[in-house]
Amino acid sequence: MEKPQTWFLLLLVGLGACTGEEERADAYGHFEAEEVRVSAQVAGPLLYFPVEEGQRLEAGRLVALVDTLPLSLQRDQIRAAMQSLRGKLQDPSAEIAVLEQQRAVLERERGRLQRLLEGQAATRKQLDDLEGQLAVVERQITAARSRADQANRAVLSELEPLQARLRQVEDQLARCRVHNPVAGTVLATLAEAGEVVAPGRPLYVIAPTDTLVLRAYVSGPQLSELRIGQSVEVRIDGPQGQPLPFQGQVVWIADEAEFTPKTVQTRQERVHLVYALKVRVPNDGRLKIG
């Protein structure tokens, strides 16, 4: 719905706004807001959407929910596949514990044989046979670890793509919930609960209204007296025609001139080329977009 355009008086500080006893404006303009179009990020039926035009929304509020059932089922399926694969992981610790116990017994026996050999109560062959048994146990421990590592690497190689897919699905599930990005007033709603939306489909338009931007136009001679960051006084029509003053700050000045818009007036009535500028004005609730 188009809003009627309302023109406001802009008085630029330091530009001399008096003609005789009558105070006149240096430029006229209208208020704009920095609009944000909030869109759906996933496809599906829009289950929850309580947003209405003119509604004030805080940043971070949940404003829409797209059906999560298909993605939830995908997530459950991936988790089940991952759980099945994890069941194939091999843990060689029990087998290795038995072999290490055998190794400890053989090492104690080797120590006993070495003492007997020193007293010539045992033969060298007995000690060599025992050393051979120890070497076999060591190889068995190494082989058990190697078999488990090989088998587990194969399982993990199948788990990695599933983990990546799970992260992707969980990210999509999070995107099913749309949170309002900025505090402001809803200017227009573009969807209804129950509709099927697609990624990128705008749901509503919101604009912060605690600060508005006044877009105005000045002539070339006035431009030399303007600078970014300059304080200005903005006046709007108040009750009974009395002007209401607001303080603002110049935040942007156009680099190039343009032809005067038909609906814009300037101090010099016959000016053909003007420069656009923007003034940021804190809003106490009395300023309106338009």
Notes on the protein architecture:
The protein has four helices and 17 strands. The protein has helices at 69-86, 93-118, 124-175, 220-223, and strands at 8-11, 18-19, 22-23, 27-32, 36-39, 44-48, 56-57, 62-66, 177-179, 184-189, 196-197, 202-207, 211-218, 231-237, 243-253, 258-259, 273-282. The longest helix has 52 residues, at 124-175.
Short descriptors:
single chain; alpha+beta; Elongation Factor Tu (Ef-tu), domain 3; 4-stranded antiparallel beta sheet; 4 helices; elongated; disordered N terminus
Question: Would you spell out the secondary-structure blueprint of this structure?
Answer:
Elements: E1 8-11, E2 18-19, E3 22-23, E4 27-32, E5 36-39, E6 44-48, E7 56-57, E8 62-66, H1 69-86, H2 93-118, H3 124-175, E9 177-179, E10 184-189, E11 196-197, E12 202-207, E13 211-218, H4 220-223, E14 231-237, E15 243-253, E16 258-259, E17 273-282
Please summarize what this structure is.
The protein is of the alpha+beta class. Helix content is 34%, strand content 29%.
User: What characteristic shape results from the CA principal axes?
Assistant: elongated
- CATH-wise, what's the superfamily of the largest domain? Efflux pump adaptor protein, beta barrel domain
CATH class of the largest domain: Mainly Beta
How many strands in all? 17
Q: What fraction of the residues are assigned to beta strands by DSSP?
A: 25-35%
Rounded to the nearest angstrom, the radius of gyration is 39 Å
Helix fraction bin:
25-40%
Number of structural units classed as domains? 2
**CATH topology call of the largest domain:** Elongation Factor Tu (Ef-tu), domain 3
Q: In sequence order, what are the helices and strands, one letter per element? A: EEEEEEEEHHHEEEEEHEEEE
Through-space gap between termini? 13 Å
Sheet of most strands = 6 strands, antiparallel, barrel
Strand order across the largest sheet: 1-4-13-17-15-14
Q: Give the number of helices.
A: 4
What is the arithmetic mean of pLDDT? 83
CATH architecture assignment of the largest domain: Beta Barrel
> What low-confidence regions span 5 or more consecutive residues with pLDDT below 50?
1-9, 12-23
Helical/strand content category: alpha+beta
